[in-house]
Amino acid sequence: MTFAPASTTANAVAATSAGTPGVPLTASGQAAFGRAVALSCRECGERSPIGPRYVCESCFGPLETAYDFGAITRADIERGPASIWRYAPLLPVPADVADRPNLNPGWTRLVRAGNLGKELGLRSLYVKDDSGNPTHSFKDRVVAIALEAARSLGFTTLSCSSTGNLAGAVGAAAARAGLDSCVFVPAGLETGKIVMAAVYGGRLVAIDGTYDEVNRFCSELIGDEAGEGWGFVNVNLRPFYSEGSKTLAFEIAEQLGWRLPAQIVIPIASGSQLTKIDKGFKELIALGLVEDRPYRIFGAQAEGCSPVSAAYKAGRDVVQPVRPDTIAKSLAIGNPADGPYVLDAVRRTGGAVEDVTDAQIVDAIRRLARTEGIFAEPAGGVTVAVLKKLAEQGKLDPDAETVVINSGDGLKTLDAVAGTGVTATIKPSLAAFRAAGL
Ligand SMILES: Cc1ncc(COP(=O)(O)O)c(C=O)c1O
Ligand SMILES: [Zn+2]
Prior knowledge:
Number of strands: 13
Oligomer: single chain
Largest sheet: 6 strands, mixed
Shape: globular
Helix content: 25-40%
Bound molecules: pyridoxal-5'-phosphate, zinc ion
Order of helices and strands: EEEHEHEHEHEHEHEHHEHEHHEHHEH
Strand order of the largest sheet: 4-5-13-10-11-12
Number of helices: 14
């Protein structure tokens, strides 16, 4: 399936190098998609040229980006900026990407979590804290790649279907790049997510329905003239967008001293982040940038939206859609596009998928804050609670290097920890302080 960008737009795809026919160039003469050479079908493997397409024309399977990397060294990467753009040679972006207006996300903290590790009996635990991104979630990574593709393919409006964080990331990236934006979310999201999505000045549309209904509506819009020239980052730009999550894998490995963690716990909504972290680890091994040693991938869901966990536990390959009901609204995707690929990655690496209750999510948000000073949104509560559950079940090696991902900021979801507040309100006197028993 292809999708035509606005026909009036100056389109980088029109400019192709004489030496390498078919390779799109940017205005400054760079290969617009870097070392990416094709889109390849995740089902049948058939390749098609890079362009505004996201579904295989032979089997309707989803497309992903394929590369011819050549040689890339650790030194090449280490010379790069303190953002995802240090990995530009591993992404479908032009070499001068860091010079173009964007939010420069990434290179977030990898925190050695000794206190949390002690509580959970894990001796080498790290939190990858992606709340430190420009709009406070990992979504800035994926949007930055989609923005580049949108520019190169001539889209004029940046759009998405979102569970909240993506809407804010798209709004901010479009504002910075000078593009229009129009983003779609299910009605009933947290106030912090709504404000974060609206403040950048683009259009924010709440749809009376679930995320899955929002997503279906966006697919209809893509086929309609009302959506002409619109790049939906997670739909018709998905082969590029999803590559952004590989940068989590690259950063974790580099921050560990160019080593893969033995165990990693990753949140699942559509499942894209998990499958692309796996792809990132595989690419690092293939390029000889890290030692080829086994790693185990663990997926985390909320019990109130656990279609992948249910399929994993039942030994099924097919993910049956559910209607979500959980406080982890950012992970509330009942029909996850990457569900089967998550099952493949988890089973191939000897990991697991687990789910946790809303009460366990809230407990984990508080535990992470109390032990490490990191305030997570419910998605981070889900991964930390699943980490705890897996540790208690004996499914994790307590001595192995373990990373848990916090993908979003608790400031956007204050209601999750409602009831948290002042210890006491007193008069400004020593007598009052002593009387309060503090
Ligand atoms: C904070 C947060 N973490 C994780 C995810 C999961 O993303 P994916 O759809 O790639 O599984 C999302 C998706 O919206 C999110 O907002
Ligand atoms: Zn195919």
